[in-house]
């Protein structure tokens, strides 16, 4: 694609808009953002005025041309004057229609530039706000919705503004001309407008609210879809595909209800505008004819009738447009409101103080801990925490109270404590994301390398992920890069990847195993060479061997951090690393520091550290072999790209798409639409001819003529009203719901490999941009094509009847239009496909920014991500802007056909003067007056339909190419209701793979008796998780090997049925944060009693935590309400009573009805919650339990609690546990040791631990 013009600079426009927004008047009014946008683009708005003004003047000359032509045909003139008048008519025709074509082309092009600049400006400020907004204020999908649908709505602001002033001007000129022609009767078009406006006023009362409700329903659906797409692997593992599919489809059905409620008003608007267009000329001419008959005045003649029709068209069209602007304006204002609300949301409050030289000189406050500062002068302190109290969320109770610590530069600080003691909260406070309630945090460094508990990676190659942000164009330091890769133990991982470090990691690193993701994130932090690095539980996903390598080469006393003098804050549950710390901080469950100091000092005291028992560590490590990651990740070869999906944009059109779309509509609905539009076109064709007969009657039988005229107009109105209601209230909702269901079904039943190779933003784009096109653009385009096609046919027939010779030009005109649309359509179709694909770039950029905003801000990478967003927005706008450019080309070419037709009509009238009546020439010129609109609307509508069918093409190709993971599911036998009732599991010569021919599991055979507790261990990539996934059929079984559960071969059973009968606790808890605690606990929808939910929450020690946080949230709400009332911001007693009642009701229902988002849980607490959910599944599922690293983010004490719960609550179940922590499985009945996809050892843990040279013994001692 060619680059955009220099005047369309994304970065400059973004910066200009940000400056205008920053300079806004405060306090902000409702239209502050709209005003800032107008000020930013005022020059572009000024340029539009001149061509639009000239266009209006030329358009108003059309009735004068019609009047003069009719006069010329009906009057006998001397030959010389006749020749001069004929020349003047032809010249006027050429100037008027050619001038209109050129001026309209200039106007539309400048308007397209303005709309593009508007989109640039608003997406820019929304993205800027993503980087500065307070964490947790908005759901991630809010910004995505604002960026996609709302910014799209706002781009029409310029169009509405310029249409507003120009249509008012055109209406004023038209009224003056009509008064000159009809006298006082000219007021009746305005009377019709006033009557219609009264109806419109009643409609508009709820328009904004309805549009807001519809937009919120769309946002809720996209939010739910995103949350589910993010957790698809876990959803499949837990057998929740059908439940989640129903959940998304339920959100879609609610959205459709809001769609219908909103579009009822829009249909009423459209019908009102049609009524204005149809009844204005009818009422005006009928009243004129009646009053002329009663007064005995001059009746309607041909000249007056058709000139008045042309003038009324000039009056009715702008009046119609002005009425149509109202719903569009409401939608634009609502979109502006939502964007402005987002931009005005609370800022991230970074209350950290940055240390400088004056602190080293002793210039500090007396209330500070003087002894602490005297012992550690601030010039040697990296972080000083002084009497700080912190809460994890604004509505939660503090989890850290009055804590103080001084962290020296170059030291390794280890922070430990049980689950829920505030370790991650402290890390966020050190980053500046959580402001302390009291006290102060001082830091010597503004830029911090940060690794979160859940590794966040940008989509790109592994090397790009390590070497910095996507917007950083600097060349990587190869020597430093190689050293970082070595200390993070990634070299052998690269050897096993299909393209080494050029392998694409996928959305959120989905193609990597958990340990690989964590090490790549760690490598990124090390590569950045920051003076301060915060590592939040980064060692939890690593096996013992890899962990020892990283500790020795990176974190240990001889590691890279010590060599660089880097200050390291390590948050960990692993007690064996505590002796490495220069300073240890232990947090207790009261929110206080239980103890802090050096390892030796704390060992001498009677505290937590003195009770820690360290494992013996074996020395002498050697390099690990056979670390193929095929066992725990999904490899995606770069050449594995769907040629069909990639080739869609090159297709030249496919009429079978219409069949696909019409099948979603249904034949009865389609016939109703076509029938009503056919009747509408016939009646519109008859009306002008009837008007000619009425004008030529000389006033005779006036009541008969006027009555039939009104009946024809009423019939046309009713038929088009039926068509509009059918398309928007019947066809669009039904087809949209059906197509969404097809898309959802394809996605939910797609194989796991699809999610590994496809970015979430790309899939989400199908549910947002594509669905918006199917809901809003495609039905309207279909209506426009059918309506205009029938209208053009009726007008061509009418023109042929009144001017038979003009039909000789029709073949040439049709050929010209066909060739033009053929060239245009081929280009526009490809551009529309490119546009659909390119929009996903910006969506993915927003998602990455939102998911990793804490990391981005910590590293200080905001500008780099802004540059990356600018680059992607520029790329995404190129096809869109090119599409608008060729649309302008189409406008001008079709507009230039009209002067040819008009000149032909005038030429024939001149050449055949005496054989053509005034009525005929009046009808012909009135047809031509609207011919350019009809032709343009037909080709544009056809093109919009074809390009909108791009979404249909993508959906059909997606449905065809993404085959379901279990295509024969319907033909497979369902397992017995109680299966598996015993829990016997047998692997017989099992081989499995993600991508042939590389095997993830190779020839595994083992029989597991019912009720056995099994531990699965091995190095990273050994195939541990693959063993579980094979049992759940998430990896493909190869060869003749089998997996039998209670004697049934799982290949003979539907995959979803197998997964829905096994209790699975995945490593990453699957939580929908916008759902309630109840919905997340009872995720299978079995209507579990509240008492049972409370019991399991108490069992995992979360009930008190949730109750406390709920009470705190309600107290915060009450305090905020009291402040609002005290400040006079809210004086509604009824609202206060309502709020109080809701609080009481919520507290009475307990924490179960609160959303997960309002009761924030730490990562370890979320794993406890996931275990509680598993306990509730026992009555509805069988006797097999799978635990996939279910305790990876908890401390040793909580791990012991979870193991006790598993032993007690699942005592009669077969439990298969995958673990990196060997302590977790030491009490198992059976241990399986996997390496490179093979079972190398199996037996009781005590027996394997004593086996000399055994693989399990090597793991225990950390040997490679």
From TrEMBL:
Q: Which residues cross the membrane?
A: 86-107, 262-290, 670-691, 703-732, 808-825, 892-912
- In this chain the ABC transporter domain maps to 383-615, 985-1261
What does the record say about its membrane topology?
Answer: Multi-pass membrane protein
Which Pfam family is an annotated match for this chain, by its short name?
A: ABC_membrane
The UniProt keywords, alphabetically, are:
ATP-binding, Membrane, Nucleotide-binding, Transmembrane, Transmembrane helix, Transport
Where is the stretch described as Disordered?
623-643
Output compositional bias ranges, type Basic and acidic residues: 623-636
Instruction: Please tell me where this protein is predominantly located.
Output: membrane
Name the domain of life this protein comes from: Eukaryota
Q: What name goes with this protein?
A: ABC transporter
């Amino acid at each position: 694609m060619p680059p955009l013009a220099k005047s369309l600079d994304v970065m400059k426009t973004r910066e200009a808009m940000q400056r205008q927004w920053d300079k806004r008047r405060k306090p902000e009014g409702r239209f502050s953002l709209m005003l800032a946008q107008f000020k930013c683009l005022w020059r572009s708005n000024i340029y539009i005025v001149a061509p639009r003004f000239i266009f209006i003047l030329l358009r108003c000359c059309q009735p004068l041309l019609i009047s003069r032509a009719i006069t010329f045909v009906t009057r006998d003139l001397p030959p010389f004057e006749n020749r001069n008048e004929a020349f003047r008519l032809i010249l006027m025709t050429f100037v008027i229609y050619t001038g209109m074509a050129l001026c309209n082309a200039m106007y539309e092009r400048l308007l397209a530039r303005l709309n593009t600049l508007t989109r640039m400006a608003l997406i820019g400020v929304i993205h800027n706000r993503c980087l500065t907004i307070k964490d947790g204020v908005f759901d991630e999908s809010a910004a995505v919705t604002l960026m996609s649908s709302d910014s799209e709505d706002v781009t029409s602001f310029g169009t509405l503004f310029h249409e507003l002033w120009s249509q008012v001007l055109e209406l004023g000129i038209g009224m003056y001309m009509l008064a000159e022609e009809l006298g006082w009767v000219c007021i009746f078009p305005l009377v019709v407008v006033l009557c219609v406006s009264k109806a419109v006023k009643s409609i508009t009362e709820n328009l904004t609210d309805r549009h807001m409700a519809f937009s919120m329903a769309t946002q809720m659906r996209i939010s739910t879809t995103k949350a589910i797409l993010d957790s698809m692997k876990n959803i499949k593992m837990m057998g929740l595909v059908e439940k989640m599919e129903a959940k998304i489809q339920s959100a879609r059905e609610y959205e459709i209800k809001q769609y219908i409620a909103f579009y009822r008003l829009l249909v009423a608007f459209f019908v009102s505008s049609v009524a204005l267009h149809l009844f204005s000329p009818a009422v005006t001419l009928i009243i004129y004819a009646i009053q002329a008959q009663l007064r005995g005045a001059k009746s309607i003649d041909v000249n007056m009738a058709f000139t008045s029709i042309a003038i009324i068209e000039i009056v009715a069209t702008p009046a119609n447009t002005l009425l149509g602007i109202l719903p569009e304006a409401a939608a634009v204002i609502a979109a502006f409101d939502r964007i402005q609300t987002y931009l005005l949301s609370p800022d991230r409050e970074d209350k950290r103080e940055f240390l400088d030289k004056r602190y080293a000189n002793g210039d500090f406050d007396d209330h500070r801990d003087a002894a602490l500062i005297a012992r550690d002068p601030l010039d040697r302190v990296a972080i000083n925490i002084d009497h700080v109290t912190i809460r994890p969320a604004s509505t939660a109770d503090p989890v850290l109270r009055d804590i103080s610590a001084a962290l020296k530069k170059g030291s390794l600080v280890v922070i430990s404590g049980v689950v829920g003691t505030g370790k991650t909260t402290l890390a966020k406070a050190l980053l500046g994301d959580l402001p302390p309630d009291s006290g102060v945090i001082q830091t010597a460094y503004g830029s911090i390398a940060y690794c979160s508990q859940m590794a966040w990676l940008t989509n790109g190659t592994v090397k790009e992920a390590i070497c910095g942000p996507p917007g950083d164009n600097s060349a990587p330091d190869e020597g430093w890069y190689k050293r970082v890769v070595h200390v993070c133990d990634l070299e052998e991982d690269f050897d096993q990847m299909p393209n080494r470090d050029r392998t694409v990691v996928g959305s959120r690193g989905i193609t990597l195993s958990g340990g690989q993701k964590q090490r790549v994130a760690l490598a990124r932090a090390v590569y950045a060479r920051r003076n301060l690095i915060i590592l939040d539980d980064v060692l939890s996903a690593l096996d013992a061997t890899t962990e020892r390598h990283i500790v020795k080469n990176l974190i240990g006393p001889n590691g890279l951090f010590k060599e660089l003098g880097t200050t390291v804050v390590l948050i960990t549950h692993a007690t064996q690393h505590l002796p490495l710390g220069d300073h240890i901080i232990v947090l207790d469950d009261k929110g206080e520091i239980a103890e802090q100091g050096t390892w030796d000092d704390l060992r001498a005291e009677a505290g937590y550290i003195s009770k820690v028992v360290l494992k013996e560590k074996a020395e002498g490590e050697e390099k690990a072999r056979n670390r193929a990651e095929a066992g725990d990740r999904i490899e995606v070869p770069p050449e594995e790209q769907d040629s069909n999906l990639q080739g869609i944009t090159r297709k030249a059109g496919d009429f079978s798409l219409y069949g696909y779309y019409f099948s979603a509509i249904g034949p009865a609905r389609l016939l109703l639409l076509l029938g009503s539009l056919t009747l509408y076109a016939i009646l519109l064709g008859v009306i002008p001819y009837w008007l000619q007969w009425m004008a030529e009657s000389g006033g005779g039988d006036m009541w008969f003529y006027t009555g039939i005229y009104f009946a024809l107009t009423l019939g046309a109105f009713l038929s088009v009203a039926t068509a509009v209601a059918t398309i928007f209230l019947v066809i669009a909702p039904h087809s949209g719901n059906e197509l969404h269901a097809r898309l959802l079904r394809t996605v939910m039943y797609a194989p796991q490999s699809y999610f590994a190779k496809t970015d979430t933003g790309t899939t989400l784009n199908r549910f947002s941009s594509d669905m918006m096109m199917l809901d809003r653009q495609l039905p309207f385009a279909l209506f426009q094509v059918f309506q205009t096609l029938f209208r053009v046919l009726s007008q061509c027939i009418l023109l042929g009847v009144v001017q038979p010779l003009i039909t000789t030009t029709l073949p040439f005109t049709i050929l010209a239009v066909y060739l033009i649309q053929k060239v245009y359509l081929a280009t526009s179709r490809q551009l529309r496909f490119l546009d659909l694909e390119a929009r996903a770039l910006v969506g993915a950029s927003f998602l990455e920014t939102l998911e990793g905003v804490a990391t981005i801000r910590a590293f200080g990478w905001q500008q780099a991500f802004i540059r990356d967003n600018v680059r992607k927005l520029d790329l995404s706008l190129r096809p869109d802007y090119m599409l608008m450019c060729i649309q302008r080309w189409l406008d001008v070419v079709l507009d230039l056909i009209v002067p040819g037709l008009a000149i032909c009509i005038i030429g024939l009238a001149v050449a055949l003067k005496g054989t053509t009546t005034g009525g005929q020439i009046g009808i012909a010129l009135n047809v031509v007056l609207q011919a350019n609109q009809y032709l343009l609307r037909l080709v544009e509508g056809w093109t919009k339909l074809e390009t909108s069918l791009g979404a249909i093409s993508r959906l059909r190709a997606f449905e065809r190419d993404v085959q379901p993971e279990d295509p024969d599911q319907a033909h497979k036998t369902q397992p017995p209701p109680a299966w598996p009732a015993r829990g016997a599991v047998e692997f017989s010569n099992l081989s499995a793979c993600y991508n042939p021919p590389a095997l993830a599991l190779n020839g595994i055979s083992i029989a597991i008796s019912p009720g056995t507790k099994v531990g699965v261990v091995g190095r990273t990539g050994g195939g541990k998780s693959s063993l579980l996934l094979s049992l759940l059929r998430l990896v493909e079984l190869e060869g003749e090997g089998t997996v039998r559960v209670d004697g049934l071969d799982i290949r003979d059973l539907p995959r979803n049925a197998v997964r829905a009968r096994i209790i699975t606790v995945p490593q990453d808890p699957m939580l929908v944060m916008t759902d309630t605690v109840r919905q997340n606990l009872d995720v299978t929808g079995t209507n579990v009693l509240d008492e049972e939910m409370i019991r399991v929450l108490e069992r995992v020690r979360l009930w008190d935590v949730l109750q406390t946080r709920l009470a705190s949230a309600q107290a915060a709400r009450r305090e905020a309400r009291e402040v609002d009332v005290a400040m006079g911001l809210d004086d509604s007693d009824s609202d206060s009573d309502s709020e109080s009642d809701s609080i009481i009701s919520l507290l009475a229902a307990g924490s179960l009805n609160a959303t997960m988002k309002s009761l924030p849980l730490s990562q370890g607490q979320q794993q406890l919650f996931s275990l509680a959910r598993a306990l509730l599944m026992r009555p509805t599922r069988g006797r097999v339990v799978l635990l996939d690293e279910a305790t990876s983010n908890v401390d040793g004490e909580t791990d012991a609690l979870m193991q006790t719960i598993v032993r007690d609550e699942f005592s009669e179940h077969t439990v298969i546990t995958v673990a990196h922590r060997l302590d977790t499985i030491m009490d198992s009945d059976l241990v399986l040791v996997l390496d490179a996809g093979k079972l190398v050892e199996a037996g009781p843990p005590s027996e394997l631990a004593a086996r000399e040279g055994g693989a399990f013994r090597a793991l225990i001692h950390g040997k490679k």
